[in-house]
Amino acid sequence: MVDKDGVIRVNRAPVLTLWAAIVAERLGHDADAAITLGRAVAGSSARVKARAIGLEEKRKDGDVRDTAKPAPRQTVHLLGRDLPVAEHNDSQYALDHDKPASPRPAHAYVEKAFGEHLPAVRRAMEALADSLPPEELNRIGFRLYERFRPALQAEARKVPSTSRKSRRPALNSARVCMSRDTAPS
Question: For residue 107, what pLDDT is reported?
Answer without folding.
Answer: 94
